[in-house]
Specification:
By secondary structure, the protein is of the alpha+beta class. The chain contains 21 helices and 20 strands.
Length: 543
């Protein structure tokens, strides 16, 4: 038993994943070196219940509830939580635990793994944040609450940062405070009303130049010469600012991220900045449009154009339709054309015709309000997303007279929401279309994803691929041992490499494959992904 246990521990030490084992009562008695190196804890500090020190305080309660439930039921399970790295940074991990039983069915040990899911959680949080903001816009929340929420979402996505949004005033010369929920009030008050110019910190310069301004160290950057003392007093060392543009290209304000440490934005943070500055633009433009509408009916046409919102009236008895100027722009018809339902149908995307008929054409019989989204296809083939909202108006007798409503071009907002999903779909389609075994790995070589051809060939599931024993199950044991050091050294170099190894088919046979590893690098030249392709060379090897 002890020999088997030692063998298992030896295998756990060699797998490229954080792994551990516990006694039946849940106390940890072994954590592999990768786990210890990651957390920075010693074995003495981590065994027993000491590992809890590496769990984020906000996640410890949920994790312990799950762990105690698994101990009580003896069933395998999993839970998500944040694990502290040796440098103090927390990352999201998936904690999995599996019991080992003796011949009588009693749990004699637990084995578990921690899998880094930070990128997935980040994408989920990003999408959830975007959806939350779009919902707030759709529900006509105040601009201040939307921008405040936007800042908090960004700060949640990029831990340790502080977000600020400034408006450019009507004369285009000064920046005014809009939102900064985490910056000190004394600091926001001090910069409120500051002029824009070629050397006015990050925000003033970004608004002046009409381009992003990245200041990695406020103390040494000449753009902050006149504001360095102010920033230092409040512990601010870096500031990245991006102009917020209207749909017409006018500067609306600036979107900035501060840090207490000198640093530059990662590619992930740069993508986040682009997406949320665009959402801020949408929110600001919508708010400006509604403000203009409330101020005066004489500004109605301008307000509708600014917010990409048109109005219409549809008289049920005659079928007569009246459009505002912006509605003509949205549907791309000349204002000289008389609007008809036939003209509307000509613009409806073929896949949405049935939906349109159900919601609009049947509305007079049902007498209900209209509220739905659908797609338009323009003469040049461009696709627009619109939201149609209309109220059923009745006369004193209760008879339905007309529908009065609005059509909103929500294409920009829809694209922002769909961007992550579309990228993932395209990636999967490309990977599945390549007639080779494909494996996607983390920078340290841990498998993340295998294409359908690989799963079909090996007979493994995606969970099997991500499991710690994948290499032992998928490759010939002689090759696993033979190539272990060579593979580890090649991954550390961060350049393309290849190796020959035997892959186990689902029927149990082994065939020789040439495996090529290609890295994907970020802007600083660091490996963020490995893509491995397998080509069957068994026939060549046997000739």
């Amino acid at each position: 038993m002890k020999e088997a246990e030692l063998l298992v521990r030896e295998m756990i030490e060699k797998i490229p994943i954080l792994a551990w084992s516990c006694q039946p009562d849940g106390t940890a008695d072994f954590l592999n070196q990768r786990w210890l190196d990651y957390t920075g804890l010693s074995t003495e500090a981590a065994v027993g219940w000491g590992w809890q020190a590496a769990i984020h305080p906000e996640d410890l309660g949920k994790l312990m509830d799950t762990w105690l439930r698994l101990l009580a039921t003896g069933e395998p399970g999993e839970v998500e939580g944040r694990l502290r790295r040796f440098d103090g940074e927390y990352r999201w991990f998936l904690f999995r635990a599996v019991p080992i039983r003796d011949e009588e069915g009693r749990v004699v040990r637990w084995y578990g793994t921690n899998t880094d899911i930070e990128d997935r959680k980040w994408a989920e949080t990003l999408l959830a944040g975007e959806n939350r903001l779009l919902k707030m816009m759709a529900e006509d929340n105040s601009l201040s609450s939307i921008l405040d929420t936007l800042c908090r979402v960004v700060e949640e996505l990029s831990a340790g940062t502080l977000c600020s949004i400034l408006f450019l005033d009507s004369d285009g010369h000064r920046l005014r405070h809009a939102a900064a929920p985490s910056l000190p009030a004394s600091y926001t008050a001090a910069i409120d009303g500051s002029s824009i110019g070629p050397r006015v910190g990050s925000c003033g310069t970004a608004a002046y130049r009409r381009e992003p301004v990245i200041v990695s160290d406020i103390i040494t950057d000449p753009l902050w010469a006149d504001y360095c003392d102010l920033a230092s007093t409040h512990g601010l060392r870096a500031c990245w600012s991006t102009p917020i543009f209207s749909s017409a290209g006018r500067v609306l304000g600036t979107f900035a991220i501060y840090s207490h440490e000198p640093c530059s934005p990662s590619p992930q943070q740069q993508t986040m900045i682009e997406q949320f500055s665009h959402l801020a633009s949408i929110a600001i433009e919508r708010a400006q449009a509604f403000d203009a509408l409330r101020r005066s009916e004489s500004y109605l046409a301008y307000a509708q154009r600014l917010s990409l919102t048109g109005s219409f009236c549809w008289r049920v008895s005659s079928g007569e339709i009246t459009w505002s100027e912006e509605t003509f722009r949205i549907y791309e018809y000349s204002p000289t054309v008389k609007p008809t339902m036939e003209l509307v149908c000509q613009r409806i995307h073929p896949e949405d015709i049935t939906l349109f008929q159900e919601r609009v054409m049947c509305a007079p019989q049902e007498g209900k309000d209209i509220d739905f989204e659908h797609r338009l296809i323009m003469p040049d083939g461009a696709v627009k997303y619109v939201e149609v909202v209309a109220c059923a108006v009745r006369d004193k007798s209760g008879k339905l007279v007309e529908f009065v409503g609005a059509v909103m071009d929500v294409t920009a907002a829809k694209k922002a929401e769909d961007r992550i999903r579309q990228d993932e779909r395209e990636f999967r389609q490309i990977v599945e279309a390549i007639p080779q075994l494909i494996l996607v790995l983390t920078p340290d070589g841990s498998p993340l994803y295998g294409n359908e051809l690989l799963l079909e060939y090996t007979g493994l599931t995606l969970d099997d691929v991500r499991a710690g024993d994948f290499r032992a199950r998928a490759f010939h044991p002689d090759d696993v041992e033979r190539l272990r050091d060579e593979r580890r050294q090649a991954l550390a170099r961060g350049v393309s490499f290849e190796m020959e190894q035997r892959v186990r088919r689902k029927g149990g046979q082994y065939r020789w494959f040439l495996t090529r590893f290609n890295p994907v690098l970020d802007g600083q030249g660091h490996v963020i992904r490995w893509y491995a392709t397998g080509t069957d060379i068994d026939d060549l090897k046997r000739d």
